[in-house]
Every structure is written in C-alpha cells, then in structure tokens.
Amino acid sequence: MKLHRNSQKRIYFEDAVYFVTSKTHNNYPYFRERIFCDLFVENLRLCKRLKGFLLYGWVLVYDHFHLQIHPNDKFNISNIIQFLKRNIAHNINYVIGYTEGANNYSRLQFRGILDKYRKQFIEKYPNGYPFPKFKWQKSYYDHYIRNDNEFNNFLDYIEFNVDKHHLPPDWPYVYTNSAFDDLIDES
Fold first, then answer.
1. Measured between alpha carbons, how far is residue 163 from residues 59, 114, 152, 158 in Å?
2. Which of 9, 13, 112, 163 has the greatest number of C-beta atoms within 10 Å?
3. Pick from 182, 139, 187, 141: which is nearest to 46 by CA?
C-alpha cells in the first residue's frame, strides 16, 4: 500500500480492482456529440494498450464515465486516469478547433485518427459550434473493490447507467456492446 503524493491522499492497493468515475467540468454534456464519444473510445483503447491495465467494464454517458479496472504493477490508478483524461481533453479540444499546442502531440500514430474526427466535426458544424473548451472536473472518484459481490454489483451499476441517465435505448458506449469486445478482459 502506498499513499499518493498530492493532497488527495489516495491509497493504492497491490493487485486491486477499482471502480472509477470522472465527470466533465460543470457537468457539461460533451458526450451528447457522438464524435467525442468515438474519440473517447479510441483514447481508452490507446490508454489500455500503453498502460497495460485490465478493463472489466465501462460506460460513457453525456457528462461522465465509469470504469472498472485492474492496474498493473507499473502504472497505478492515478497514472492511468491522468493519462486518459489529459489525452481525451487534448484531443477533443483539437477536434473542436482549440489547436494551441496541437503540434506538440507526441503520439503521431494517433494523429490520423484525430484528423479524421476533426474533418467529421467540421463537416457536421461548417459554421463552427460553440462547444466550450473541454475540461474535466479536478480529480476523480475511485472505490477499491473488496470482493466478488462488489465486483458484480459495480458491473451491474455500470450497465444500468444507460437506463439511469435516460440515454437512447441503442446507446452503444457501454462495455456490453459487442463492438467493443476488444476492450474487455475476462474477470
């Protein structure tokens, strides 16, 4: 067990599974826009590949996401969530047109994906769309999962979020969608 170095006083457990929630700044519903949702999924794939964590469940709703993840020994929960949130914010802002610092993007293999979404966004909103600059709320909520019962209850909660937030019945951005089987690990 290690303590986080900043004032959050986050505790890390070895070989732990966590339920994580992060919200957009002021609960702004950026993820009503499917382009941003697709970009979220691409970033989740990239983060999973680079940080090597196990992902058991996830859902993206209009203003937040939930993950159920098992970090590895090299990257803790804070490393993973910081990477994910930073990249999603940077990439969505690039797509919207807030391009300051965009030339400093370090993952060039991702640049083609960003340009594809930027083009789609411009086609959809040719006169611009007044999305505010994307930001997340500071920090995130996490819960250390203590047993199989909690593990299953949190997976059920993640899946239930689609109904809880009155999303369209065909809302695809949830781990139970077979299109995202590549993201999910067996528990």
1. 12, 30, 18, 10
2. 13
3. 182
Task: Give 122: exposed, middle or buried? Use CB within 10 Å, 0-12, 13-18, 19+.
Answer: middle
Query: Does the pLDDT of residue 106 top 50, yes or no?
Result: no
Q: 186 is written with which tokens?
A: 């067996």
Q: At what angle do helices 34-51 and 77-96 cross, to 10 degrees?
A: 140
Residue 157 CB-half CA count within 13 A: 13
The pLDDT of 148-164, averaged and rounded, is 97
64 torsion bin: left (phi>0), alpha (psi -120 to 50), beta (else):
beta
**Nearest Cα to 186, choosing from 54, 72, 65?**
54
Which domains are seen in the chain, by residue range?
14-86+138-183 (3.30.70.1290)
Give the predicted TM-score (pTM) of the model.
0.90
